[in-house]
Amino acid sequence: MSKVRIYNLARDLGVDNGKMLEILDGLGVSYKSVSSTIEDDTVDLIKQILEEEAAGGPAQAPTSTPAAEPVQASAPQAQAETQAQAASQSAPTATVERMPEPAPTASPARELPHRAPVVTIMGHVDHGKTSLLDYIRKTKVAAKEAGGITQHVGAFEARTSKGRVVFIDTPGHEAFTTIRARGANVADIAIIVIAADDSLMPQTREAIAHAQAAKVPMIVAINKIDLPQADPERVKTDLTSLNLVPEEYGGDLIVVPVSARTGEGVEDLLEYISLTAELEDLRADPGGEFRGVVIESRVDRQAGVLATVMVQEGTLHVGDFLVVGEGYGKIKALTDTNGGRIKDAGPSTPVQVLGFSENPSSGETVRSAKNEHQAREVVAGRVGDRRDAEEARGRRRLSLEEMMGP
Ligand code: GTP
Ligand code: MG
């Protein structure tokens, strides 16, 4: 029996993946990702559901289901469920409607608006991370970098044909482990870039480990396939030896061959990003309490502290008070990643904030305060806590020195 991947079926039937997953949920078919395969019987059911919906029939309810046919799910544990479901379909009025929804209060997250995925690009030095982003942004950032090596974590917002995607570039140099770890923590999806002529290298393994530790879904981009010495098959085999089995070898790892030079495969990569994002069902509350993370920060001699903050929840407005580490500030200006001044920034927006009094460290959490008084209080509390901790350490050190004698 032939099998079809969920996203392929969605494409063939002209529906989005979210819709497809909704139908599968309704049918009680389990799946691991949009690249999971489903059986022919399930495909028939889905087609029927869609046809009836299109005909204005009962949504998600095939009335003339071949009810005796159990729905085949690829995962064994789903089979019991689907068979039970199928059994319930034998009554003429039975439908494959979903289980009763829990009370709205039990799942408020479902009600929140979607937000753009934050995608981090990680991998070994020179494997083409920045070039790949450049291609996506149609800009030339790599050419401007000192020595062509990414020195910091840059965040970029790209409008792709699949909607807004936020990319975070990370350096491949071995001195930047913490930056990569941070990139993995801020991201919803990790793209692991592996050069087809070089395969798995130390920082590739490290990037994979960061993504795994952060429980971020991974997509592998095998880059530089335009090179004559490119050997994408070797990369796939090497990945398999790390227990990361590409789809075409029967696993669940999405592997996309690309060339940042020619652009080959880049559209596919974007497609896989949006597929994965859909499955993650990313949502945030633009009206909620603000929370963000410092991506990078520097001090400009004239302007002062310029911090790039990723908005995770809520919305930043010019004039808001923010607290980060032991500093606070009132937002004087917000700049988007294209250099344009903006008045506010919602979830999944990387934004440059002008107005911090002190230079925050990358990875620090940013919170908002109602007013300057509250901001000062929060900072004073943090400073107090730190001093207490330092004093305690100082006392320990002193007593150690006393013990050791002159
Ligand atoms: P770090 O930031 O230093 O870790 O490097 P990176 O991974 O960002 O690599 P970068 O984009 O700077 O590319 C490194 C080199 O590989 C540059 O000379 C690029 O021109 C080249 N390169 C990147 N992608 C491709 C590609 O698809 N094909 C070919 N032939 N060369 C590429
Ligand atoms: Mg780079």
From TrEMBL:
This is Translation initiation factor IF-2. Its main location: cytoplasm. Residues 72-95 have a biased composition (Low complexity). It comes from Deinococcus aetherius. GTP binds at residues 123-130, 169-173, 223-226. One of the essential components for the initiation of protein synthesis. Protects formylmethionyl-tRNA from spontaneous hydrolysis and promotes its binding to the 30S ribosomal subunits. Also involved in the hydrolysis of GTP during the formation of the 70S ribosomal complex. It is found in: Cytoplasm. Signal peptide: none annotated.
